[in-house]
């Protein structure tokens, strides 16, 4: 079977949208699964819906990468978006043609091509996802390096070449999973301007570039792991695709930028779920508190109740009802965004958790639940109490479920974590920071009253003494006793 390229695709009889030639408007640092299922997908859709007529040149961010595979396939790859929408199974296939080529800057030819693209009149956007560790200032990087090791240093070289050539400023869209990713990237560029003694006029020119912080949201499992399934798909497609990519059907991209950027970008005109906003912070809060908060809020009790994967929880009316009440009655009212938007996002969360293609294990979500509960659930918990002057029933029960999960019939403390025993009889290992695991092991023989008091007064966990919240201590004790005596599912049902 022949490898995917434009000629092979034509011969396969593929009927979908394809754009073979277009100006290279994007330089993209990163060629991995996420960017190809996310950024390149949005621009591909804009090519079809808005006739944006643009291509992305991918730049391999580290020495080992996909350059040869991408160029062998002329930038083409098959993307499957799979999941559930409004309760219906979705399995969509699309061949992405928004990528023109890939460059390896760790080879002389690739570095020269990157710097040539830097001064192109067609270039409008620079996009990046170089992992959380990618946006760092490394003082070892020198201006004469070809290339420097860090992404911000490479970007500084690209921008300086563009400035010297008298070219127009660009829009920089940072997709790394850190807070204020665009601002942090701009700071790093400023440090290289200082270190390399570059002209102040260049610093001023960089100030006319638009560094955007962005929030990305799409689960991308990436490759198809079952070789038999992969072989069957290749046979059905009529070509061999070594870059096949898989993502969930849900996706949203929130870009922090000026109003004019929404008109410049092709996404709004294309009716795509990409939005330019003045501040990305509320949307990050939405994702953390609703999507991540839902996970952390129900999975620990659900595991004790006998569930193993998220999707099965969505097929149980008690667990799903508990999650939805927590979201709709206790979390959404505390968020500073349009309620219709929040309700739609929460409805999509249930679909995402019900993805028939992803077996998302509750134990994998349980990792580091102490810090997760503090970051994801505590803000909603405290805001609800502040607004309503009473305890939120589901979030309070969730806190009790967290304590139950970390303390259920503790067997031992070993180098892998804290071994507990599930009500069903099997052992499970709690993974968290050593101090948190040591704390629960030390309190393994406490009464419910003593354990709850120790947890709520542990300021290393919560940065405060939670026993000062009226009625919280006695309520958590009551909830913990119910989980232990009647089971977590009955405890969740008591909140409904």
How would you characterize this protein structure?
Helices cover 48% and strands 15% of the residues. The relative contact order is 0.09. The protein has two domains: 6-278, Rossmann fold, CATH 3.40.50; 282-493, N-(1-d-carboxylethyl)-l-norvaline Dehydrogenase, domain 2. It has helices at 6-12, 33-37, 39-50, 67-72, 108-118, 151-164, 181-195, 200-208, 227-237, 259-264, 281-304, 310-313, 317-331, 339-353, 362-365, 369-388, 393-407, 434-442, 448-456, 459-462, 472-486, 488-493; strands at residues 24-29, 55-59, 77-85, 88-96, 99-103, 125-128, 171-174, 210-217, 245-248, 252-256, 274-277, 412-414, 417-421, 427-430. Strand 12 (412-414) and strand 13 (417-421) form a beta hairpin. The mean pLDDT is 96. The strands form three sheets. The chain has an eight-stranded mixed beta sheet with strand order 5-2-1-6-7-8-10-11, sandwiched between helices. The chain is α/β, with parallel strands linked by helices.
Features:
single chain, 496 residues, alpha/beta, Rossmann fold, N-(1-d-carboxylethyl)-l-norvaline Dehydrogenase, domain 2, 2 domains, eight-stranded mixed β-sheet, three-stranded mixed β-sheet, globular
């Amino acid at each position: 079977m022949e490898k995917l390229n434009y000629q092979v695709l034509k011969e396969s009889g593929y009927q979908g949208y394809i754009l073979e030639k277009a100006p290279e408007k994007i330089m993209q640092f990163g060629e991995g699964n996420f960017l190809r299922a996310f950024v390149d997908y949005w621009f591909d859709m804009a090519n079809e819906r808005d006739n944006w007529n643009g291509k992305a040149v991918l730049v391999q961010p580290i020495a080992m990468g996909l350059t040869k595979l991408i160029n062998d396939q002329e930038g083409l790859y098959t993307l499957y978006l799979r999941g559930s929408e409004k309760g219906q199974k979705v399995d969509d296939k699309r061949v992405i043609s928004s990528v023109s080529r890939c460059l390896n800057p760790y080879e002389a030819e690739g570095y020269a091509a990157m710097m040539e693209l830097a001064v192109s009149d067609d270039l409008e956007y620079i996009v990046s996802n170089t992992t959380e560790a990618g946006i760092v200032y490394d003082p070892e990087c020198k201006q004469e390096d070809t290339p420097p090791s860090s992404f911000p240093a490479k970007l500084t070289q690209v921008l300086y070449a563009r400035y010297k050539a008298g070219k127009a400023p660009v829009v920089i869209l940072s997709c790394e999973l850190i807070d204020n990713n665009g601002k942090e990237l701009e700071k790093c560029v400023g440090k290289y301007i200082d270190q390399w003694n570059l002209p102040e006029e260049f610093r001023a020119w960089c100030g006319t570039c638009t560094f955007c912080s962005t929030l990305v949201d799409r689960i991308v499992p990436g490759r198809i792991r079952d070789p038999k399934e992969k072989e069957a798909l290749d046979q059905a497609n009529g070509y061999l695709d070594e870059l096949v990519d898989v993502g969930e059907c849900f996706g949203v991209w929130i870009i922090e930028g000026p109003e004019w950027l929404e008109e410049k970008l092709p996404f709004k005109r294309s009716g795509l779920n990409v939005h330019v906003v003045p501040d990305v912070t509320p949307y990050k809060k939405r994702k953390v508190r609703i999507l991540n908060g839902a996970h952390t809020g129900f999975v620990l009790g659900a595991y004790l109740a006998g569930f193993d994967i998220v999707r099965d929880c969505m097929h149980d009316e008690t667990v799903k009802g508990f999650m939805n009440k927590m979201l709709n009655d206790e979390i959404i009212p505390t968020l500073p965004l349009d309620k219709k938007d929040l309700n739609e996002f929460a409805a999509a969360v249930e679909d995402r958790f019900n993805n028939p293609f992803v077996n998302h294990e509750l134990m994998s979500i349980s990792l580091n639940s102490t810090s997760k509960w503090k970051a994801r659930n505590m803000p909603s918990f405290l805001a609800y109490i502040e607004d309503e002057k009473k305890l939120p029933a589901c979030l309070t029960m969730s806190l009790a479920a967290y304590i139950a999960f970390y303390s259920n019939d503790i067997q031992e403390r070993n180098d892998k974590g804290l071994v507990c025993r599930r009500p069903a009889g099997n052992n499970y290992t709690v993974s968290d920071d050593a101090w948190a695991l040591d704390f629960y092991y030390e309190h393994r023989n406490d009464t419910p009253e003593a354990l709850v008091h120790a947890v709520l007064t542990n300021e290393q966990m919560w940065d405060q003494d939670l026993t000062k919240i009226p009625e919280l201590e006695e309520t958590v004790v009551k909830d913990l006793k119910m989980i232990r005596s009647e089971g977590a599912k009955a405890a969740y049902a008591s909140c409904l």
